[in-house]
Structures are given as C-alpha cells and as structure tokens.
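User: My instructor asked us to take a sequence, write out its structure as tokens, and then describe one feature of it. I'm not sure where to start. Here is the sequence I was given:
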Amino acid sequence: MTGRIVPLGLLLVAGIYLWATLRIELDPWSADELVNARAMPLFCGILLALFATVMLFRGLTPTETGRRYKSLAMMAACIVGFAVLIPNAGLWPALALFLAASLKLLGERRPLVLTVAPLATALAGWTLIEVGLGVYIHPGAWWS
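Assistant: Let's start with the prediction itself. The structure tokens for your sequence are:
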C-alpha cells in the first residue's frame, strides 16, 4: 500500500493542476488558436497524470519510496524558495539560484558546473526572452 501513496499524491496534484489550467481565461482572439495560454500547462498536467497513472499501476517498492522522501522534501523546498525569491530577486537571478541549488541537491560537486550551468541557462533565457523577443520581465524589488 505504501508504494501507491506517492503516485496517488501525484495524481491528485495533476488533477488539481489540470482543473486550475482549465480555469485560465483566454482572450477572445486566442481562444480559437491551437497554441494559447492553456496549451503548455495542459500538456504538462496531462503528462504528469499519465506518469502518475503508470506509477500507480506499476507500483513502487517500499525501498524506492522510503529513501527518497528527504530528497523530495528538499526539492520541494527549493521550488518554494524559487517561487518566493522571484518577486524580490527577479526571474533570472532566482532561476540561476534555483538551478544551482537543485544541481547541488542532486549530487553535483564540481564548482565549475555549479556556477557556469545555472548562469549560462539564466543568461540564455534572458537573451532569448527579453532581448530576442522583447518581452519585459520585471527585474524584482531588489533591483528596481
């Protein structure tokens, strides 16, 4: 039974996420388009529901679930920290810190990888989104 708790929890999260996704209001001109504000969240929610369903039927052994709760809790803390940090530090610095913390949590020890990979990812995102597409993203309370 314990091998089914995590997949059931993920399935519950997927259901709530899909319900919230379907509540996203669309502009009249984008409601008829195939790709709109709901497309990516809907895809991610369906994918999460599919993976959780496969995990539910396959089942997890107790050793797989028991030793991963600490890592799961730490990753959840990183995600919450990322969400809390965005309004203050801005998206790109928060993303770099989130990626560095996640890499460290996943066992990466090389200092070059822990600094260059998150910074390069955040810089590439800033270049593509803000410079390339011209989309303004608020820099955060600490910088404005």
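For the description part of your assignment, you could build on this observation: The two ends are 51 Å apart (CA to CA). Try explaining in your own words what that tells you about the chain.
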